[in-house]
Amino acid sequence: MSMVHIGASLLLFLLAMISVAFSVLIAVKPAADPANSVLLRKANIAGLVESIVAGVVLFSGLIAVFMGPSSLSYPWVWMSLMIMVFYIVALVFVTKPARLVVARHGSAVKTGMQVILQIGHVLLILVGFSLMLLKPV
Length: 137
Description:
The structure is a single chain. With 137 residues, this protein is mainly α. The protein contains four helices and no strands. The radius of gyration is 16 Å and the shape is elongated.
């Protein structure tokens, strides 16, 4: 189960980097544009796959905790769970609406914030990786 968790985590990191690339491409010309509608459709598909993979990472991590030597009494397990829950909630309720607004009628501020949100997602994944590798007590 831990190999599934590691593989899904690496896939999640790759999808987060693809989402950053889509947000930067949408930010090049933030307005209603046929090219942006195609990019938005692809970004939404990538976001959906990213949400599904994040859920797989969350549940495979929980199963790995119950099957492995670790327990829920460790703070790093709870911090990692909270990071993933926050990641999924922010992806669905904050980042996707921001992406839709920028692609339809965005300004420089909205565009910059949307790119920063995507980069924040990547940083959350990096913090989660470091918690999994270091396992602080």
